[in-house]
Amino acid sequence: MHVLQPAHRTATGWLAAIVGSVALLLATPAISRAEETNPNNYNCLGSIAAGQPEVGNEEQQVRYTFYCSGPVTGYQLQAQIPLTGIQSPPLVRANATGAALTDTFSCSGEVPGYALNCVGSAKAGYETITGQFAIGTKLCKEPRVDPLLTVTYAYLEKGVVTQAISGPYDLGRPKGCPADARSGSTRLNPKAPTGSHKTHKKAKKSNRKK
Description:
Strand content: 35-45%
Order of helices and strands: HEEEEEEEEEH
Largest sheet: 9 strands, antiparallel
Number of strands: 9
Helix content: 10-25%
């Protein structure tokens, strides 16, 4: 897994890096915003699952996939367990046809760390972005990784760089894992572990018998 230089620790530094990169990439003013989804309130959907093993790397690879209702020039995945490796660049495909696009992103982050930051361009909405990161535990071992996604869009409007940010979105727990007491719970929609109520009742009955 290819790991780039450590990313800035603060959100301010991360957004500044995105704006700087996009300002160099953009050469023409953005088209009318009126015909696009509000970039501060995108609809984004995604998920995670087991990734492709890498030769010579025994770490657990995790594949993430997502798309948003508008163009994206940067995104961050924030995990609640340490990330031990980051793959770059992710693959960008047309959602309708599955065809690979020339749109691309470059990703970096501290390793080990809790976030990966990517800058680049998905020029249209509903382009599917797929990448990988590594974790130091098995995919289905609790606590299972459950990353939050935040996306940004920066563009030139009358010669001025304008930026928007949307999220967070919960990509959820890994697909393909057996159900357990925490199934159905996510970081943005936490639920009490199933079976805990029954266990509590059994404990009460046991205490009464004593």
